[in-house]
Amino acid sequence: MDKDTSVLELKGVGEKTRKLFEKLDIRTLGDLLDHMPRDYEIYGDPVKIAQAAPGTVCAVYAAVTGIPGERRVRSLHILNVTVSDGSGSLQLTFFNMPFLKKVLKQGGYYLFRGTVQSRGSTKFMEQPKLFAYEEYRKQTNRLIPKYALTKGLTNQAVQKAVRQALSACAPEEEYYDRELLDSCSLIPRREAEECIHFPPDRDSLLQARRRLVFDEFFSFLYLLRRNRQMEEGLENRWQMFETADTVRFLEQLPFPLTKAQARVWQEIRDDMGSHACMNRLVQGDVGSGKTILALLALLMTAANGYQGALMAPTEVLAMQHFETVQDYVKRFGACFRPVLLVGSMTAKEKREACGMIASGEANLIIGTHALIQERVQYRSLALVVTDEQHRFGVRQRELLAGKGDCPHILVMSATPIPRTLAIILYGDLHISVVDELPQGRLPIKNCVVNTSYRPTAYKFIAGQVAEGRQAYVICPQVEEGEMDGLENVADYAEKLKGALPAGVQVACLHGKMRPADKNRIMEEFSAHSIDVLVSTTVIEVGINVPNATVMMVENAERFGLAQLHQLRGRVGRGEHQSYCIFVSTREDKETMERLQILNRSNDGFYIASEDLRLRGPGELFGVRQSGEFSFRMGDIYTDAAVLKLASDAIDRLLARDPDLELPEHQALRRHLAENAADTVDFRSI
Ligand code: ADP
Ligand code: MG
After folding, report:
1. Residue nearest to atom 18 of ligand 1 (CA)
2. Residue 437 — pLDDT band, cuts 50, 70, 90?
3. 271 inside domain
4. Which of 601, 621, 655 is the last residue of a domain?
5. CA of 84 to the centre of ligand 1 (A)
6. Which residues does ligand 1 sit against, CB inside 6 Å?
7. 147-162 per-position pLDDT tens digit
């Protein structure tokens, strides 16, 4: 058996389990080993109810004291049980688990594990996990990996499969040379792989994670460096000049550009008219008005008789950009002839769009990565703008660039990155910063609260809806069971329907929906036939619905600050006062201190630098910084030091052996060629 062997070969994995694994994109033993735990959990010793501190996860061993009470709210089944252990009593609530009524016998002792919450002097737990005492004891005080799951697949089943895969696969050769391993204090790759799944203790786990994160950054940065070498000094094949079109467009806009926008627009114009090809990043906080800059550059391209492309990370965002452009054509007579190209279009629609692109009839192409995947032929692609680019990966950017004769590249990013990191991560780009918000925006009002605030929040949302506004509620997961104790979109939406007045339209949105359904829901929300949207973070990128005034984030403690700031950027985009409610299920000092930063400031750069300061290495399984830099494990904030280390290591390596020709670098060369295949084209090495 090796890494390419199908999971079917494992003991205990039949056709049914194979299908479940496939849902998680796990087909081979190698995929299984790459399926990293999302978190680790320690089952602590059980505590007395009187000692169980609200806001913490506890296990209590207690007896059922009354007859379980049942009720229904629409399609939701709710079971209430009171348990007691002599020191105090605890209310338990289970959702959609009617069978527990028969399991939980009056007088029977069980072990319940969950987050303790309190309302007045009453302590309660929602949806605790249930164990037999012996079963729980066996797992106490060990680091238990928590995997991303799917309905029907238990954490234990994944653990078992991973254990088998580890012993079946021969270790890959170590690809770093001794010097690199020593100078960066890295443990061997194989040890890291074993230890990340089955950590003997916390220190080993941190070492393992450090090695894997280093590897991830190393491949990424290596690719960036090579890109930079390639792109440096590329001649400008598409020299352009400003025409009356952009000047007139600016005059027609209902608002003047901010000083920062005007400065960046000047930088872009200079680039496109110069002798070298543009390779520029425009960085600006959410709502700073980057779209206009992209459109100005695209308009200048069209006016010069060339084609431009605008790539968005989601179909929803692409369609929104398309509508904005159509509106400008209608209102201002802008010289755009736009086409949309997204994955969910029919084959015929795509063919038509491609025809218009190939003939040059279309001079602005707006879409998602379908743009590059669908073998599009451009007639004169002179500018590529990518919005929120790092979702695309450098490889895709490169592919698209390869379609034209080295088009100008303009990258828009709302991820506020401290300068030290930007130099490393955007090493291949020139940077412009839009460091000013348009005037007259009302600052968003924020609050950080615990779960007992929910009823008040729902009343507030109902009030806003009654005034004609809309709201978002964000949950960390799509459906029940991916991770314990986190709110999920599906169940939450049901709960919320029960809590809001009957006429309020509530809908769900998440990444696992089909693109066409996502688009439809987003359009309905834009058109205001939906009042409250319960969503995962898929809405975090770029969406513009100015009528939405409330952003409520559940399990806020699970998100990075920069990501929460992005989410907040979805409101406060219009004339109405907007509000952000961050609900934390944890109330420990560090969590509260971290979330309070959002309360204090609306400045993305300040927030990012505070995030960086507060997040020391080690503490950070669980709080994911998704956003544009979606590394699998690494987090540019938490792992900033490792990022720097990898960056320095590459500089040293390339200074000594730019083409990886030395014998001691052959293993690395092979590794990069094989493993970075989906992020970079290494055929040229
Ligand atoms: P982001 O930088 O987050 O992509 P957008 O480009 O979507 O922000 O702009 C947010 C909102 O601000 C849009 O509704 C846009 O029309 C508006 N806007 C952009 N520039 C200005 C400006 N100079 N003055 C007033 N409003 C502006
Ligand atoms: Mg934007």
Report:
1. 289
2. confident
3. no
4. 601
5. 56
6. 255, 257-258, 261, 284, 286-292, 414, 438, 542, 544, 573
7. 888 888 988 899 999 9
Q: What is the pLDDT of residues 299-317, one digit of tens each?
A: 999 999 999 999 887 888 8
Domain extent for 77:
44-138
- How many angstroms separate the CA atoms of 627 and 385, rounded? 18
| This model's pTM is above 0.90 | no
CA of 278 to the centre of ligand 2 (A): 20
β-sheet with 548-553: strand ranges across: 445-450, 579-584, 548-553, 470-474, 532-535, 506-509
Pairwise CA distance, residues 579 & 575, whole Å: 13
94 by DSSP, 3-state: which? strand
Give me the pLDDT at residue 682, please. 30
CATH number at residue 57: 2.40.50.140
Among 138, 164, 194, the domain boundary falls at 138
Closest ligand 1 atom to 261 CA? 23
CATH of the domain at 540: 3.40.50.300
| Mean pLDDT for the chain overall | 86
**Nearest bound ligand to the CA of residue 286:** 1
DSSP 24-83: TT--BHHHHHH---SEEEEBPPP--GGG--TTSEEEEEEEE-SPPEEEEETTEEEEEEEE
Question: Looking at the 3D structure of the chain, how many domains does it have?
Answer: 2
| Ligand 2 centroid, distance to 387 Cα (angstroms) | 7
193 inside domain: no
How much distance in Å is there from the Cα of 219 to the middle of ligand 2?
Answer: 28
- Pocket probe for ligand 1: among 292, 295, 327, 434, the residue whose CB has the most ligand atoms within 8 Å is 292
579 CA from centroid of ligand 1 (Å): 19
The verdict on residue 646 lying in a domain is no
